[in-house]
Amino acid sequence: MASINLHAEAGVSVTCVSNSFIDHYMKDLSGDAVRVYLCLLRCIYDPSMSFTISTTAERLGITARKVRTSLDQLSSAGILSLDYDDEGELCDICMRPLSDDVKEDGDGQLSFDFSVQEESSHAQEETTVSEAVSTPSPEAAVPEESGDVPSASHKDLSDDDLENDPEISQILFIAERYLGSALNNSGMDTILYWHIDLGMSEDLIDYLITSTLDAGRRSAGGAINYMNAIAIDWYRQGIHTVEEAMLDRKQHNENVLLVKKAFSLSRPLAKAQMNFVDKWFNEWHFSQEMVVEACNRTMTNISTPNFKYADSILESWHEKGYTDVAQLAGDDAAHTKETRAKFTASGSGKSGYQPKKNGFNSYSEKNKYDSKAIEAMLLKNNTF
Q1: Count of CB atoms within 10 A of residue 209's CB?
Q2: Is residue 73 predicted with pLDDT exceeding 60?
Q3: Cβ count within 10 A of residue 171
Q4: What value does the mean pLDDT take over residues 311-333?
Q5: What is the b/e burial string over 56-91, where b = at least 16 CB atoms within 10 angstroms of the residue's CB?
Q6: H or E segment to which residue 224 belongs
Q7: How far apart are CA 259 and CA 307, in angstroms?
């Protein structure tokens, strides 16, 4: 899914929380809504951060559905306004200025309604169907029984069973909303296969769709096929929760794959190693080229994929303010010059070879025999 345009009517130069929000609004908001609002404030004043439903869900450790519900709550409270494009997709969030002049009911509560749910808040929006989602036939989209993957048993259910299940209706509503068009029978079969046969929950399907679209796969048909492959892979790995899926997706992040390739690793990274990668790219904001260079130097120097060693290299570059590989040339030259100076000062660099005297040499120098004197001594003693 594309990044959502986020702007404020009244801009400030720092990230701060309005006293009005703390005094009048926060006490009546859900915990998730407060956290989403803080995340919005963090993003709007930092140009390097983008806001999407799935990235916010990952950052806060909640589902995409809870993020959308929180946005609806904040909108109902008058804290922000939401705009949707022609396909019904959220495209604009406007942070509205807050005021101390808010209306409260007799119990001291704000007068807005927080019971809003996504399906009701957008009930009046009709899905525009310009063309049906194009996917291959159900046989191509849904795998047949292959030992470890179940077959499509949901086809045995009647239309009444499907239509009267509120969870299924919600899942299909979410899918159509994000894909931007109505599902044809093939696409519907694929999504029902995930829920009924692979046992994926509504939240997990929600995360699968939003994270795939956020990754840039905008073609509806291509996205369905790609999601289906991920869904099957999650089933085979025993992934059943959004938290487990988030961890798996991080393992397939472009930056993680780049580091694994530089270190010649095929196994999944441990949590501590993932933290190193996250720090290099998201905290220190190194380019992929710089991180790969640090990994290559690690392998050259110690011949093993050591994340702590690579981290020490990158920490040194971070402290020096290096952001480009070209800057390393001058640093390397200075380091080489310093090393040569130390080598020369230690005496190892003097010209001429001075062999070290050992015990054998000392013995030979002290024991030089006079052959004529020895012969005379032997003749005198009639030795011969």
Answers
A1: 24
A2: yes
A3: 21
A4: 87
A5: bbbbbebbbbbbbbbbbbbbbbebbebeeeeebbbb
A6: helix 220-237
A7: 10
Phi and psi dihedrals of 242, rounded to 5? -65, -40
Per the CB < 8 A criterion, the answer to whether 80 and 8 are in contact is: no
What's the mean pLDDT in 84-91?
72
Residue corresponding to tokens 């402290």: 319
Residue with tokens 């003097």: 350
- H or E stretch at 83: strand 80-84
Residue with tokens 């929600």: 206
Band (3; pLDDT cuts 50, 70, 90): low
Query: What is the C-alpha to C-alpha distance for residues 292 and 242, in angstroms, rounded to an integer?
Result: 30
What DSSP line would sit under 244-299, residue for residue?
HHHHHHHHT-HHHHHHHHHTT--SPPPHHHHHHHHIIIIIS---HHHHHHHHHHHH
How far apart are the C-alpha atoms of 254 and 370, rounded to whole Å?
Answer: 82
Percent of the chain that is helix, strand, coil (3-state, to 5): 55, 5, 40
Structure tokens at 306: 């050591």
Cα–Cα distance measured from residue 145 to residue 147, given in angstroms and rounded to the nearest whole number: 6
The β-bridge partners of 164 are none
Q: Under a CB-based contact definition with an 8 Å cutoff, are residues 83 and 96 in contact?
A: no
